[in-house]
Amino acid sequence: MPIEGASVYILLCADGSYYTGLTRKDVETRVSEHNLGINADYTTRRRPVNLVWSAHYAQLTDAIATERQVKGWSRVKKEALIRGDYDALPALAARRQKKGGAPSG
């Protein structure tokens, strides 16, 4: 059942990779769909998946912007978000920018 706004979520896949997605459904329902292989191209081959982070946004546009941003993050930066280590996020972005030359945030 659709809910107001949308949620962004990160799944830990069986192969150790992370999948970042967006849903207007209840997050637990969407995770179940991933585990059943429903509308889940990437995760179907990497089941089972476990929800490791999610955030709900009242505005769909905010959720879309967050999903795009997080998808561009390094694994280390995603893991800081999952841990709730928000203070580390700017430093991880700065470190990646210095290494690669171009901003990645």
UniProtKB/TrEMBL annotation:
InterPro entries: GIY-YIG_endonuc, GIY-YIG_endonuc_sf, UPF0213_domain. CDD domains: GIY-YIG_UPF0213 (cd10456). Residues 4-80 form the GIY-YIG domain. It comes from the Bacteria. Pfam families: GIY-YIG (PF01541). SUPFAM superfamilies: GIY-YIG endonuclease (SSF82771). PANTHER family: UPF0213 PROTEIN YHBQ. Belongs to the UPF0213 family. This is GIY-YIG nuclease family protein. It comes from Methylocystis parvus.
